[in-house]
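User: I'm putting together notes for a lab meeting next week and I want to include a structural view of one of the chains we've been expressing. I don't have a solved structure, so I'd like a prediction I can at least talk through. The sequence is below, exactly as it appears in our construct file.
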Amino acid sequence: MSVSHTGWTAKFLAVVRYEILWNIRKKKFLGMLVVAFALTTLVLALGHIANALGGPPVEPNPDFVIGSNVGLGGFVFLLFAIVTAMNTVSAEFESGTIVPLLAKPVSRTTVFFGKLFAAFLTLLATYCFLMIYMTIGGFVVYGPQNNLHLVPLSLLGAIFSTLIWIAFVLFLGTLSRSSLMAALGTLGIWVGTTIIGSIVGMLAGQGWILTYIPGSGSTGSVGGPPSGLGAGTAVSTGTDSIGPNLINYILHPSWQVTYYKINIGGTTPGQSWIRLYSEPFSNVILTSISVALVYFIVFVAISWYVFRRAQVTE
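Assistant: Thanks for the context. Below is the predicted structure for the 314-residue chain, given as structure tokens.
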């Protein structure tokens, strides 16, 4: 049994090494680092750019790093997921390399999860680079930073937020065997959940639906309505905000998140919003993490099943 376990581990690591070297040869990892560096630099420079265009001067902000979500947002999570996983399975079918790969004495399960783990390592390395760069850049641009020990929670949340979209990319890529379909299909899902879902949630007051689909989720508020006099602190409850929400929960464990919908007929600031319901902040975090895990496990499992059953022809 020990020999068998060792043999499986060696095969698994060989697949991981194969996939990482393929990513390096295709300059995928280098491209992700360049994009990450450019996006983070833009986030760090926004204050100075606004100041150069006549905006307010850049003031010290000791909470910039822990509030920046490692410089990432919903669309960037999607972008990195597509770049990381769109060629993981589908490109093997498109190029025909799936034939010699599966001809080796390695099970399809080992191949699939080895490729998935290599994608995770690529993503982890990119986000670690982002976290370090954002921390140093925030200190340089905005002065000494508070609560830097909580920054790894942003890293953890960013990985959770991206793994959902990686699961969708794998699912569509395995079904269609097309990298283009994997990318465009996942982009279409993101557009639907983010744009259409947000409109329905804000105007129709059905934001609870967004709690159970990936993306930005419903927007709640702590301490008052989202805008107007005495505006509260906005809280995004979706899977894209797991990192910032974890940090805020450590800092403010007693928060109660209240949800509102726009009152179309309201003419005064006090009538602009209709209160719907409230829930503890801990519920928001547990729900978003649970949703992320369920989507990831379900769609990865389906992708694995389809990959195992796929017919391969030369």
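A couple of points you could mention at the meeting. The chain has eleven helices and four strands. The two ends are 35 Å apart (CA to CA).

User: Perfect, that's what I needed.
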